[in-house]
Amino acid sequence: MTLANTTSTPHARRRSALAARLGTQPALIAAGAARPRNYTANTYPFRASSHVLYLFGADVAERDGFAFYDGAAWALYLPRRDPDDALWEGPRPSFAEIAESTGCAVHGLSELDRALRGRDVATLPAPDLETCETLSRWLGRDVRPRRFTAADEALAEAMIALRLHHDDAAVSELRLAAMATDAAHRAGMRATRPGLRESSVRAAMEAEIIARDLTVAYGSIVTTHGEVLHNEQHHRPLGERDMILADVGAESPGGWAGDVTRAWPVAGRFSTAQRELYEVVLAAQRQAIEAVRPGVRYRDIHLLAGRALATGLCDLGLLRGDPAELHADGVVASFFPHGVGHLLGLDVHDMEDLGDRAGYAPGRSRDPAPGMRYLRLDRDLAPGMALTIEPGIYFIPAVLEDPALDARTGGRIDRARAAAFVAAGARGIRVEDDLLVTADGHEVLSAAVPKTVAAVEAAMQG
Amino acid sequence: MTLANTTSTPHARRRSALAARLGTQPALIAAGAARPRNYTANTYPFRASSHVLYLFGADVAERDGFAFYDGAAWALYLPRRDPDDALWEGPRPSFAEIAESTGCAVHGLSELDRALRGRDVATLPAPDLETCETLSRWLGRDVRPRRFTAADEALAEAMIALRLHHDDAAVSELRLAAMATDAAHRAGMRATRPGLRESSVRAAMEAEIIARDLTVAYGSIVTTHGEVLHNEQHHRPLGERDMILADVGAESPGGWAGDVTRAWPVAGRFSTAQRELYEVVLAAQRQAIEAVRPGVRYRDIHLLAGRALATGLCDLGLLRGDPAELHADGVVASFFPHGVGHLLGLDVHDMEDLGDRAGYAPGRSRDPAPGMRYLRLDRDLAPGMALTIEPGIYFIPAVLEDPALDARTGGRIDRARAAAFVAAGARGIRVEDDLLVTADGHEVLSAAVPKTVAAVEAAMQG
User: Which helix (H) or strand (E) element contains residue A85?
Assistant: First the structure.
């Protein structure tokens, strides 16, 4: 592997920026461990923690390694490899080569103890216990997922302040992720034919990502039952009248996420009912996207999308009454229970390992009301932020068959009309794009992915 | 989901058989937790522990669930789902439905504490700390990966006694895994063309597996550098003179592993050097396979393969001297450092979570000598065992460039000859098949995967 000299690279600049915020406060950040699947040597594909990927990049972020800032400079502490490791894993850059390429000192793990001794060191708890346990051993205190000391909080806030506003290198990576995601969705549209299974469409989509030597940023959703929000099943046959909902995103070489959802008709042409519902979601998404610009509060975009959906649902006869009132009363949440989007970056829900600290501005917190409690982002937008816009309409059996539904909504939901859409295969439709907030508005990073009815139908023809 | 009534199914019979071995000794076996990738909600695809898959099957083996044998009967303790879970994950069978389908009592997790109280309960430590920590809490003792109490050991031995000899249902699953694995290898052969990257071949192979709604049983190796035994890189371009080594296996619907390796020339035709080396590996594999029958000690098959490779390496001029002597002196290990195979079952290295207990018969243990220390199986074969046979020849730079090589091998390795094979793109060749030991010999489960030079070349034409 050739490592470019990166002392003046984006990673080096990020390390300097974090150091400037930390001052003399030391910090230890773990790359993380490979997670066992069924036994220790059979692991899921290793992916370093987003924080270490952010500071050092994927080439350097080795499993079981640590980045340490001692209050003055950054260093890497990496496991020493024994000769048999080369047999199984092949040659890797030496510590000297990594030091040369990063401009940071590189030490064996056994030297970390001495570096930490007597210091009050901040850390970021890893999402997995293996890594937390290692951190606990090194730091002599109980480090646990989602538990932060005051020093940890300060480190988390410093990371958030940086990672919230993407630099040029980050934007390039997000573009690479969006490009591969585009290819995946086009392949899925082309591969769709009645009689195949959902898994065949998923295979066509993921093959585009794997062929680029990339991975998915999250578990793919490719389903004829989009009303199950995190549907992990892919066994169903594709019926002539079904629609597919595909929420599939590629991760760039550096670890940055794409996150795009499209819905398309198995038959290759939208039926009237399918198109009507799709256009309502699309119109709400367009309005929400138009609102994305610096200074706008994200929660207001969520509410805007909800009101647009309310209007569309009334137009379709699914809701009865005044759209504004229906929205204010939370009736829309029966069809649109989730948030309109979230931060996007090295994580598909960026920095969700830090809880709501990244998504929610200081002083703001989750509203437990239906339709609000799954909103993952409530900040005032600023240039450099990346986020998704993803409204949806879902006919959820557990909601629509709830005996208390009429009482709760004042009988304003037309269940028979909902059943007609379900019969037309339009069980759940979401349209999701990835956006970058720019100085004077926004850019849709995933703009190439076919979205209009005409574009989707054309893409399905190949 | 429709759950068949399974009270008289293979799973029920396995539970009865394990209960018979346990007698009145209670046992708690965890299905395991979903492993976080970058934050808690972004997990790797969940796969239940092989022990629970064995006893209850994939439809019932829920994340965070437990199977408990109280010394008389089996019961399941499963997390209770709140209404919002249905929103995200869709409808699941009720406890009553699972009880009906399994013939076992089904309880919420909160009732497990009472069931365990005052009992000395055996368990099997999970490979991940999250699950071990949960087990520790339930059992009031420190359960850790790879740490076994006397009661745990007895439970492990009882599981091994069962899982070592595959029942008909297990064999059916192994056949399904082999079929999908066959499709993957054929797709990889067809997709190979100079100028593509390794990742394109991998994509073609994994797409066959994903399209069948299956997953890979382990991280795929698809590489032009087969001399790196666990090569996880797929970025290299395919040169005209390269060979691909593909070690890719599908996991069946019930969680059973396929594990097949083939090597093929990027050009579509084996060059003379490529064919010569390939035929040596193939001849050694044939001899080893022929030896597989009840009563044979697996270590002897490993030694047989090593001797066959020694003879072939001498014929090719890579080794100088008497093949038997070269083998006895461990010189062959420079080209064939790993074991000739391992157990196969619900894990690709079956039951490796139990250490060498499954692979090594009582009283036998690893031999630390080169060429022996990676041998994962040393049992006398018996009907119903499944295993792999996978000799290989590798030109490993770290080995061949070692200044001590000549001294260690008495100058009996011809480095220039080795360099010629490397230049011909034959850097590492392994041929691996999955076998079932039968009453009077063996069956090659993966026999359909093209293997002879002629069959591979034909498969590459599509």
Answer: helix A83-89
B144 at the A interface (CB within 8 A)? no
* Helices B272-290 and B298-315, axial angle in degrees (round to 10): 150
Q: Give the whole-angstrom CA distance, residue A347 versus residue A386.
A: 11
Cα(B113)–Cα(B54) distance, rounded to whole angstroms?
24
Report pLDDT digits (tens) over A404-418.
Answer: 999 989 999 999 999
Q: How confident is the model at residue B5 (pLDDT cuts 50, 70, 90)?
A: very low
pLDDT at position B2 is 41
Q: Report the run of H or E that residue B261 belongs to, with start and end.
A: strand B260-265
Please measure the distance between the N-terminal and C-terminal CA atoms of chain A and give it in whole angstroms.
38
In this complex, the residue of B202, B207, B346 whose CB is nearest that of residue A203 is B207
Contact between B232 and A45 using a beta-carbon 8 Å cutoff: yes
- Mean pLDDT, residues A238-266 taken together: 98
Look up residue A459 and give its two tokens.
Answer: 């893409």
Distance from CA of A276 to the nearest CA of B (A): 24
**Of B354, B261, B342, B388, residue with least CA distance to B50:** B354
Average pLDDT over residues A336-345: 97
Chain A residue with Cα closest to B354: A39
DSSP lists the bridge partners of residue A27 as A69, A122
Gap between the Cα atoms of A237 and A242, Å rounded:
9
Strands (E), B192-259: 215-216, 221-223, 243-248, 250-251
Largest CA distance in chain B: 73
pLDDT of residue B4: 46
Burial of A438 (0-12, 13-18, 19+ CB in 10 A): middle
Determine contact, residues B269/B291, Cβ cutoff 8 Å. Answer: no
Helix (H) or strand (E) holding A71: none
Q: Is the dihedral of CA B147, B152, B156, B157 positive or negative?
A: positive
Residue B260: phi and psi, rounded to 5, are -130, 135
User: pLDDT at residue A1 above 50?
Assistant: no
